[in-house]
Amino acid sequence: MSETNKKQNSKEILHNYITKKLTSQPYSCQWIPTSCSVITVGKKTSGGISKGDIKIHQLDFDDTSGDPKLNLVYENEFTNPFRCLSFFKQPNQLQQQQNNRRFITGDFNGQISEWDSDICDIPIWGIKGAHQGSISAIDAYGDHLVVCSGKDGTIKVYDTRIKPNNGDNSSSPISTFQQTNKNGCWSICTNDNNIIAGFENGDLNIYNLKTNSIQSTHKVNGGICSIDSNDRSNILNQFLITTNKSFITTLSLNNNTNNNLEFKDYEINKNENQTIWSGIYSPWNKKDNENIFTVCEGDGSVSMYRDDFKLIDKVIVSNSPILQLDYSKDRKGLLCCISLKKQLSILISPY
Fold first, then answer.
1. Rounded to whole angstroms, how far apart are CA atoms 222 and 225?
2. How are strands ordered across the β-sheet holding 224-229?
3. I need a surface site. Which of 34, 229, 267, 289 has the fewest CB within 10 A?
4. Distance between CA 53 and CA 57 in Å, rounded?
5. What is the DSSP string of 230-252?
């Protein structure tokens, strides 16, 4: 079940704890709040038909050997393959979410759905046709705010307290933002004030939810694969983007220079345009006033950096691209990630 860990060096700051081969292709993974369980959503092909797949694995230990293991505790198939998922983020990233273990999914057919992670059989809320075609990214904030983006180039904002129409399960969004050149929106990051959106052509747009307008627009090198902020209460304070051109960029809004963004760029691999599929800040080191982030790369590695782009450690997890990773908000040092080779891995680190 587990694979041998292939270390890039001997620092042992970042360690591949356990890897499990899955029967479906996961496209998104997150830790379930207040648990040792990871949920994955993706696609399962059976008889030439692609279906949606939700799995929950619980991190446990073998009674005899004491070795770590991933127990499959839930699995189910659904009509449409899933592209992305999000639990409801809180202003304080470590804030316990015991009373809110609900999550949102976006699928390849343009539908968004809300689920209870304790009972995943039937969605408790959903909107059909939220986007034309596949939903690329989804981000949920607070208790009810859902922001999604798609290949159609639009970003839509929903409130889960507004029930869809009984007839066709449709509903109008409370806000819609349209990219004029209709490039696909690959990534988003939101709170209740702003949305940061990254597009396949390198456009980086910041939207103001209070005025329903675009606040600023910028250009980066390469399509923007992921966005994460080090402070959910003020996502513009500092945020991280990754691209399909080997670039990681940290940005901060300087209010003294007309709301201009200050860019700090770092190219991971200068010899090839490698996709950096996802990047995320550690929620655990804020009290030390130090920002540490981890990125997953197209060569199957996961790398951890300090804010000045100093590499802390790098570990090879798979021989195929790592698509996404997530930090546990309940247990310091636990990360999960998924690969394009149908693998779920648990990593451990002191950060």
1. 9
2. 224-229, 239-243, 247-254, 260-267
3. 289
4. 13
5. S-TTSTTSSEEEEETTSEEEEEE
Residues 294-348: tens digit of each pLDDT? 999 999 999 999 988 999 999 999 999 999 999 999 999 999 999 999 999 999 9
Global pTM reads 0.92
83-118 pLDDT tens trace: 999 999 988 776 655 568 999 999 999 999 999 999
SS3 call for 16? strand
How confident is the model over 12-33, as a mean pLDDT? 96
Amino acid letter, residue 209: L
3-state secondary structure of 255: helix
User: Token pair for residue 329?
Assistant: 């908000």
Assign 286 to helix, strand or coil.
helix
Per DSSP (E only), the strands in 92-199 are 102-107, 112-116, 125-127, 135-141, 145-150, 154-159, 175-178, 185-190, 194-199
**Tokens representing residue 82 in the block:** 């899933």
DSSP reduced 3-state for 175: strand
| Residue 40 phi, psi (nearest 5) | -125, 145
* Conformational region of residue 143, where left means phi above 0, alpha means psi within -120 to 50, and beta covers everything else: alpha
Distance CA 330, CA 33 (A): 7
Q: Backbone dihedral region of 95: left (phi > 0), alpha (psi from -120 to 50 degrees) or beta?
A: beta
Closest CA to 241 of 207, 205, 271: 205
Quick one: what percent of the chain has pLDDT higher than 90?
Answer: 74
Q: Which of 186, 190, 188 is nearest to 199 (CA)?
A: 186
Question: Amino acid letter at 100?
Answer: N
Q: What is the 3-state secondary structure (H, E, C) of 56-94?
A: EEEEEECCCCCCEEEEEEEEEEECCCEEEEEEEECCCCC
- Cα-based angle 126, 278, 350 (whole degrees, multiple of 5): 110
